[in-house]
Amino acid sequence: xxxxxxxxxxxxxxxxxxxxxxxxxxxxxxxxxxxxxxxxxxxxxxxxxxxxxxxxxxxxxxxxxxxxxxxxxxxxxxxxxxxxx
Length: 85
Description:
There is one protein chain. By secondary structure, this protein is α+β, with helices and mostly antiparallel strands. The chain has helices at about 10-15, 50-55, and strands at about 20-30, 35-40, 65, 70, 75-80. The strands form 2 sheets. The protein has a 3-stranded antiparallel beta sheet with strand order 2-1-5, covered by helices on one side. The protein has a two-stranded antiparallel sheet with strand order 3-4.
């Protein structure tokens, strides 16, 4: 991981006091950007937390994965936790 971002907590989810973790599978491209993102374990589809997690994951940057010294796409699992204070 080179750069991460903090997820935006949707107001509707705050009002509903929803907390927890969204688990996603993401493809890290050879340039270190995040490509396809799939929610593996949903937290909330109604108030926008899943969408906020996906949008946040797309902002992350990684060092490229390599195989035999060459950059290759890599499937990674990410978890983003939403907690109210």
